[in-house]
């Protein structure tokens, strides 16, 4: 059996990764995020749980507070001044989201509660109308539960067959050779994650879109981890629908969106019934509004939607190319420094120099330690990372683990914070090793 001492002698850590300059974007933006300026457990907060939810800049906090302080009112329903202003701001938010994702028609943006609701909406409308027994839906083993369970429910109702793209043999990304073998004339829908919330791998969306077109299948992309971090342009992406959640791109929680090609949305019957989504209502039947109103039954999350619009505008004002470039830098630094901590550290997903790169998140495990223990000790040092299955249980089974810890960076994180995280992780490993009387 190898001891820690032996392992460490055998392990020649790679040369330290060059640190991104702390005069870069991260440092420049921090003062706009009041929450970051605090201590947690007596140490400066290092917030590295951005893949779960991001923090909000002052521009978003101000938009929320202005809505409630100055013009709070219901939308689409009143002729009075406050209602007109609320409606105008709500619809402006839709246009801002459309702008962020390159949608030319803002009526293609449906406001939902989150990405999960957006996927359920497609499953319960287009899915119910178009999927029959024996039809095939291609998903992958790396999907978030939000992109697995709605299709399982649909398959149970319709008798459709679910096919799952597996991982490459090195288990770092989706196996496109396997994907090819799953395509058939029975394929009606392909629904895949654009950027994995665990592996950080980036889907070859152009290839998948071309394949979907070839077999006449519809394509949904789960863009929860791409829209916040990189340019996503629906006019060239080739998808029929994309989904994302505001809380992951600097906006409020409780709101997200479904983008769909207009003719596809127009072909979809309503899901939830109620106010706002109708044209005319009689006692025994109703006629329905065109999209997007058809899919927005009831009073929406008005202030939150306006906040989501402010977040979309704020990101666009930075430039998504610039955001992506900085995240590549900080993400590579995070990956390299974390990988160099110890040979007992496994970081999942591709290397940063993989052809399509990787997201600025690292799910990892330390051999002999439980991910939750690692995260708990990191929290004592003021470092917030997530632990668990990250709503991707099937993927963790593929990786042969029940859970992982995950450090995920965003535009306001700095190299100094990555250093603080790495130092806290080294202390954590040492703490448990000492407690166990040597190597775990
Ligand atoms: C890849 C991915 N898809 C879907 C979701 C679900 O997002 P929400 O819970 O905001 O609907 C998440 C959230 O973690 C995610 O990372």
UniProtKB/TrEMBL annotation:
One of its GO terms (molecular function) is pyridoxal phosphate binding. It catalyses: (sulfur carrier)-H + L-cysteine = (sulfur carrier)-SH + L-alanine. Coiled coil: none annotated. The keyword Phosphoprotein does not apply. InterPro entries: Aminotrans_V_dom, Cys_dSase_SufS, PyrdxlP-dep_Trfase, PyrdxlP-dep_Trfase_major, PyrdxlP-dep_Trfase_small. Residues 1-24 are annotated as: Disordered. One of its GO terms (biological process) is cysteine metabolic process. This is cysteine desulfurase. It holds the Pfam family Aminotran_5. It comes from Gonium pectorale (Green alga). Its EC number is 2.8.1.7. Its cofactor is pyridoxal 5'-phosphate. Residues 46-421 form the Aminotransferase class V domain. Keywords: Pyridoxal phosphate, Transferase.
